[in-house]
Amino acid sequence: MSVSYPFVWITSALVSAGGVALVAYVLYSEVRPFWRSWIFWTTFISWSLVVAVAPIVLTGIGPWTPGAPPSTVPPSISTPSTSTNTTTTTTRPFPVAKITSLRNRQRVPAAVNEVRGTFENLPLGQEVWLVLTRRGVARFYPQFGPVLLQPDGTWASSSVYVGSDEDIDKKFNLLVVLADQRAGRYFARYLERGRFTGHYPGLLRLPAGAVENDRITIVRR
């Protein structure tokens, strides 16, 4: 239970008033000896208790400011720690395949016996194909493949056929295409039909799963 300073002051004032009344009664009493009166003993005991208890109460309640609310200590609030799980994403290196045996805008014969190049970061099951296009003609001509991949990161193709005698001085793009196995089978079926019919009309577009990775321009001589 909390006790405030006004309570102690009021109690002390009342008892002090009783003490004054006690002294006045002693001085002016003519009825009987004061120490035998019940008023004497009641006042004496009450005064003694207040004098004995007041210092203890004042020490325990601390300073008091008029109008200030009683001091309260908020309960301790335990905040659960939140751990953030950080997921580390590993970025797959980008596959690269390029031509090294031919220069850009190099003049070449109708049949280039071998084309060589390098590759790195090639996913398992991925194939490398060479595909020829002619400037101004919206056709893709897959060359015989896929190229042969070497353990040292190099590759080599069989012959590449660049146009006909009517295409002298014409520009062609030689594409390095990365193909998954499904796209590789699509190229193989196209070449098989060409060997059977003797006609290679070209493809209108690259099949799904085939992506151009590098190209150079060559000129038919």
Query: Measured on Cα atoms, how large is the radius of gyration?
Result: 54 Å
By helix and strand content, what is the structural category?
Answer: alpha+beta
The fold-level CATH name of the largest domain is Immunoglobulin-like
Q: Calculate the terminal CA-CA distance, rounded to whole Å.
A: 110 Å
Q: CATH top level of the largest domain?
A: Mainly Beta
> Largest sheet at a glance?
5 strands, mixed
Put simply, the count of helices is 3
User: Would you identify the CATH architecture of the largest domain?
Assistant: Sandwich
Mean pLDDT across all amino acids: 79
- When the domains are counted, the total is 2
Tell how many strands the DSSP assignment holds.
11
The CATH homologous superfamily of the largest domain is named Immunoglobulins
Overview of the molecule:
The protein is an alpha+beta fold. It has 2 domains: 5-61, no CATH class; 96-220, Immunoglobulin-like (Sandwich), CATH 2.60.40. It is 29% helix and 23% strand. The protein is built from 3 helices and 11 strands; from the N terminus they run ααββββββββββαβ. The chain has helices at residues 5-28, 38-61, 181-197, and strands spanning 96-99, 106-108, 111-112, 116-120, 127-134, 141-142, 148-149, 154-156, 160-161, 171-179, 210-220. The strands form 3 sheets. It has a 5-stranded mixed β-sheet. A 4-stranded antiparallel β-sheet has the order 1-4-8-7, with no helix packed on it. β7 (148-149) and β8 form a beta hairpin. α1 packs antiparallel against α2. The longest helix has 24 residues, at 5-28. The radius of gyration is 54 Å and the shape is elongated.
